[in-house]
Amino acid sequence: MNESLQQMTEDDLKHRICALKDRHAYHDLKKFLIGELSAGHVPAQLQVKAYNELGVAHLQLDEPAEAEKSFLLAIESDPKAVNPRFNRANIALFAKKYTTAFGQYQDLLALDPDHVGATYHSGLCLALTDRPVEALPYFLKSAKAEPERMGPNFWSGETLVALERFSEALPYFTKAAELTPDHRESHRGIAICLFEQGEYADCIAQCDMLIQSGGGSEYLAFRIKGDALIEMGQIEVAAVCHLELADMDFDARDYLVMRAKDLAKHHPDAVSRYVEVILDMIPELERAFSGVVPAEDSVAASEEK
To answer: Are 52 and 84 contacting, i.e. CB atoms less than 8 angstroms apart?
Structure first.
């Protein structure tokens, strides 16, 4: 290679990298960067960028082990560089090595405490290892820093729901749904929060929206809608709604029995009406419901028939 290439400038490197990435020519990008680095044509101050971009190329080629080596070389060339640290931690996160990833994000945050990506992903590592109390501050901070991003808003809502802080969760789910209207999990979160706050009519409207847009396959929406109908005293309609669950999943029959037992504890005057509708459609569940309906209700139902 001629002498001029031995004096590669930042503009030279950026131009070549961008030209290859624009064409999604990651094999060529990898070959170019390995060649230039091996030949010593990349000045010391540019090696962190070159190694980081080499790691990105490896990732695009589904070579995570090689990518991590490149990111480590980038960190070695500039220990204060945050991009290769973030990219390396992401490899661990996507591999579901949450403890490892969390430690690497923390190392990055020690250098750059306001790094939004590392803050948000730290929360993910904690949330995905069932540590919602620790995860919440990371999600709230990242949602405040980038309020127009769906992810931090959604996960703030999810974590607050896990902590049963429903009124606080609702605005985050609402914002996430506004940012990404087709994100069904955000709409499910809204429905849950509305139910828990006793806003049953609005909860049902949210569930209906999910059911109608989901082609009738919204298991959770049918369940929550039925529960909301029970709280509104519409027991028979609720039972019909819950029967949809049994059509979607045979194991949901266990839920119907469990829900009837719960009714017997909290709404004893409604349980016989609920069970009657269920048994009218699935008579083979009669034995499963034995003992759930008060004896006098069972006798009355038999006499009516």
So the answer is: yes
Count of residues in the chain:
305
- Beta strands per DSSP E along 177-299: none
Name every residue whose Cβ is closer than 8 Å to that of residue 77 and which is 6 or more positions away in sequence: 44, 47, 48, 51
pLDDT digits (tens, 9 = 90+) for 156-213: 999 999 999 999 999 999 999 999 999 999 999 999 999 999 999 999 999 999 999 8
The Cα-based distances of 96 to 101, 134, 175 in angstroms read 8, 18, 28
- In whole angstroms, give the CA distance from residue 37 to residue 65: 19
Q: Residue 188, CB half-sphere, CA atoms under 13 Å: how many?
A: 13
Contacts of 239 by beta carbon, 8 Å cutoff, 6+ apart: 226, 273, 274, 275, 277, 278
pTM for the whole structure = 0.88
Give residue-wise pLDDT tens across range 119-132: 999 999 999 999 99
